[in-house]
Amino acid sequence: MNSPKKNERRGEEGQSIATIFRYADWIDILLMLLGTIGAIGDGMSTNCLLVFASRIVNSLGYGQTRQHNDNFMVEVQKVPIFLMHASVFISGLVFATYFSWRLALVAFPTLLLLIIPGMIYGKYLVYLSKKSRAEYGKANAILERALSSIKTIYSFTAEKTIIDRYSSILDRTTKLGIKQGIAKGLAVGSAGLCFAIWAFLAWYGSHLVMYKGESGGRIYAAGISFILSGLSLGIALPDLRYFTEASVAATRIFKRIDRVPEIDSEDTKGLVLDKIQGQITFQHVSFTYPCRPDATVLKDFSLEVEAGKTVALVGASGSGKSTAIALLQRFYDVNSGIVKIDGVDLRTLNLKWIRGKMGLVSQDHALFGTSIKENIMFGKLDATMDQIMAAAMAANAHNFIGQLPEGYETKVFIISGHFFDQST
To answer: Where do the TM regions start and end (predicted)?
Structure first.
């Protein structure tokens, strides 16, 4: 039987590339269309110039001038690059056939000499690059943890251990860098095959000029078109994988966008009571977390809290105390039973309204990177300053806040610490 993960992976891989553009409006489509036309035009421009070159260069090469073009490396997205090289390949073959079909027919099998090295070295370099980035990530993680815990490292005289671990990872990246250099050298060296092919085309082209009446300019243009065509195809083919990766990534993103939550916090439906007393009832409630369906947290749990009463839930860790509060806030729905507020099923009430009527000091405290005043106002955005101070007094924090230089306007900064295993 196929596992759910395999089925999910198969579903992701089966999506069409068209799903990426499902949210594109007419402006997006127009811009992408113009970009596509521009990429194709950029790719065809070189071959179109060869049409003029074939008219200028005569059979004896009289009046030729040497012209050098600068290569500009532009950082663009993968799709335009692929379209550009694909258009160079197609237009190059078309122009080569147009200028001299005899030369194009003989030269066509030599495409393999240009394509295969580019594909092999391209995939190998991508593989080495990913491994190198992963190793550098490990090294940076060690360095970051060492700097954030520098006193602890000195206290336990663990400097040499950290340095050795950091150096061992850098040694691996050095070996990967050597492999990358060798692969790049072979890739650059294999590019010299185009000169061998060009020499072959020049020899055969001269044969066509002497014995078949071909024009020297047309033979020159056909040869250049063919060489550019083969090189562009070798560059374009490795980029095909980006289409698949984009499709899979888009599928994962849209899967989350299209997900309909069982409990929608933005749902405007539901009852809004004219007046709320605060009576809470748990009636034969059973519950398991979705991530652990086999572990029952609450089983046939019943509790009734009258309005205005104080109740303490006492139990061991994991016995369901926090779970009961989470169910009351309706972060989850019960598996069986019912939770009521003032005798009304919690699931029938407007979720945002009922949460707005609750005040909670959670065991998982949280502070936002803003002023103390705005942190206190987070549960009631229209609170007055008197209400803010009253809340601080109730929390026994007013005197402490008053001693700060800026009082309630003091900015809060979150400082965190990290523990790590030195064996990793």
So the answer is: 81-101, 107-128, 185-205, 217-237
Q: Are 284 and 327 in contact (CB under 8 A)?
A: no
pTM, 2 dp: 0.47
- Sheet bearing 336-341, strands edge to edge: 296-305, 280-288, 336-341, 344-345
CATH number of residue 62's parent domain: 1.20.1560.10
State both tokens at 62: 């009289």
Q: Is position 131 within any domain?
A: yes
> Do 49 and 144 share a structural domain?
yes
Q: 204 and 337: one domain?
A: no
As for how many domains the chain has, the answer is 3
Containing structural domain, residue 306: 280-356
Q: Which residues contact 24 (CB under 8 A, 6 or more apart)?
A: 32
pLDDT < 50 stretches in the chain: 1-2, 4-6, 9-10, 57-76, 417-424
Distances in Å between the Cα of 114 and the Cα atoms of 103, 143, 390 are: 17, 43, 78
Distance CA 361, CA 396 (A): 14
> 180 near 129, Cβ under 8 Å?
yes
- 297 in any annotated domain: yes
Contact predicate 13/250, CB 8 Å: no
* E strand spans, 147-295: 280-288
Determine contact, residues 287/318, Cβ cutoff 8 Å: no
Q: Could you count the other beta carbons within 10 Å of the beta carbon of residue 374?
A: 16
| pLDDT tens-digit series, residues 337-384 | 999 999 899 898 988 888 888 877 777 777 777 888 888 888 778 889
Classify residue 270: in a domain, yes or no: no
On whether residue 195 sits in a domain, the answer given is yes
